[in-house]
Amino acid sequence: MDLKQLRDGIDDIDSSILSLFMKRMELCKGVADFKKEHNMPVFQGGREQEVIDRIKELTGNKELEKGTAALFTTIMDISKILQNRTIHAAAPDYIYTSPDFAGARTIGCQGTSGANSESAARKVFGDRAFTFYPSFEDVFKAVQAGEVDYGVLPVQNSTAGSVDSTYDLMAKYPFYIVKMVTLEINHCLAAKKGTMLEDITCVYSHRQALSQCEVFLSRTGLKKHEYSNTATAAEKVLRSEEPIAAICSVDCAEKLGLEILARDIADCTINRTQFIIISRDLQVANDSDSVSVMLTIPHTEGSLYRLLTKFFVNNMNLLRIESRPIRDGSFDVMFFLDFSGKLSDPSVKAVLRDLEENLEDFRCIGTFKSE
Ligand SMILES: C=C(O[C@@H]1C=C(C(=O)O)C=C[C@H]1O)C(=O)O
Questions:
Q1: Is the pLDDT of residue 89 over 80?
Q2: Would strands 187-191 and 202-205 be described as parallel, antiparallel, or unpaired?
Q3: 361: closest CA among 338, 334, 343?
Q4: For residue 40, which atom of ligand 1 is closest to its CA?
Q5: Is 44 in the pocket of ligand 1 (CB under 6 A)?
Q6: Is 299 in the pocket of ligand 1 (CB under 6 A)?
Q7: 3-state secondary structure of 277
Q8: Mean of pLDDT values over 213-239
Q9: What CATH number corresponds to the domain at position 51?
Q10: What does each C-alpha distance from 139 to 83, 162, 225 come to in angstroms?
């Protein structure tokens, strides 16, 4: 047979598979109606095992056994997505309010005035006073306690990647993401007036800022010292009698009256950081088009692939996937996923219900307009 004949044969078989697939899905819809009426969960583990065992037996070919099991697992996952839509699409909406950034009484940022978090906060809340906390954790605590209406935290930098410490705290505290804001980061090397670059031996800054300026730091041979924040590092430089420097924003250096010894020192010319605005309760802005969730998945073969199938089949574009250790001595991780969709979309509601019902650790952690 030539290639054309082989492909014609494949096309014929695909048509048969397709028509059988459609028939199977019709039956699954019937199953969904039954489950809805009898208040049964969509997922039936025992039945799925039965299906897979039977398929493996019928395959009768060791080489193809794994493939047929994967194929039927995917078919059953698609079937559950359709069943969830039938059952949960009309589920009640989440309870939420609208964000009120202009009416916010207090807003918490980490660091001190001049920090990049403050510049990010200004983009959302305008020129006003912010409450500063020594650590990211204190900002989460203040939001949880209702001490501030909103908190501002960095999550991702275009040069250095995710801000791990924020993600670790996201797993520890209850909160909701209300908005995402992107800030152009402009790092400079700043020291006390009159200090020369040649005199400087060491430089203080936040870990993220130091890692965004690796090339400059190794070229100049300056010794790095991690500090809680770029702006607090700049304040330390101002107070110190030693010839030390800080990596901070130009705004911050100018505000404190420091000498800028070098400008634009980040490894990449375009250096941007994304910040999240968080609140204690779920707040949904009208223009929100992305949803954030955090979850763990079982340590079984294909479980990440099967999770991603849910987003793919529901036409939800995955915008971010991040994983962090759950820190219990195992090597298990917590996944943080952002995907496109509105909380009120029937398919989003169905996926969230499905995840809620079937995963041990699952939390929807807010919705925002992606930038
Ligand atoms: C169709 C059903 O719902 C789900 C999907 C299955 C399938 O597509 O075969 C099997 C078990 C359930 O998890 C069912 O309960 O029979």
A1: no
A2: unpaired
A3: 334
A4: 15
A5: yes
A6: no
A7: strand
A8: 95
A9: 1.20.59.10
A10: 41, 18, 23
Residue 90 predicted with pLDDT over 80: no
Give pLDDT tens digits for 318-371.
999 999 998 888 888 999 999 999 998 989 998 999 999 899 899 999 999 987
Number of domains in the chain: 2
For residue 217, give the CATH number of its domain.
3.40.190.10
Residue 183 clears pLDDT 90, i.e. is over it: yes
Write down the pLDDT at residue 107.
98
- When pLDDT is cut at 50, 70 and 90, the band that residue 91 belongs to is confident
Choosing from 235, 262, 289, the residue where a domain stops is: 262
* pLDDT, tens digit (0-9, with 9 covering 90-100), for 112-159: 999 999 999 999 999 999 999 999 999 999 999 999 999 999 999 998
Q: Which atom of ligand 1 is nearest to the CA of 27?
A: 1
In a domain, 67, yes or no: yes
- Residue 44 CA: nearest ligand 1 atom is 13
What pLDDT, on a 0 to 100 scale, did the predictor assign at position 59? 95
Q: Please state the separation of Cα 314 from the chain's center in Å.
A: 19
Other beta carbons less than 10 A from residue 362's beta carbon: 17
Is 32 contained in some domain? yes
Rounded distance between C-alpha atoms, residue 284 and residue 368, angstroms: 7
The last residue of a domain, from among 210, 244, 262: 262
Banded model confidence at residue 225, pLDDT cuts 50, 70, 90: very high
Question: Which residue CA neighbors atom 9 of ligand 1 most closely?
Answer: 76
Structure tokens at 123: 């983009």
Q: Provide Rg for the chain, Cα atoms.
A: 26
Distance CA 234, CA 300 (A): 48
- The answer to whether position 55 is within a domain reads yes
Range of the domain at 3: 1-88
DSSP alpha helices (H): ranges in the chain?
3-37, 45-59, 62-88, 116-125, 136-144, 164-170, 207-212, 214-220, 230-239, 250-256, 303-313, 346-358
Closest residue by CA, ligand 1 atom 1: 28
In a domain? residue 53:
yes
- Centroid of ligand 1 to alpha carbon of 204 (angstroms): 58
Report the nearest-CA residue for atom 8 of ligand 1. 76
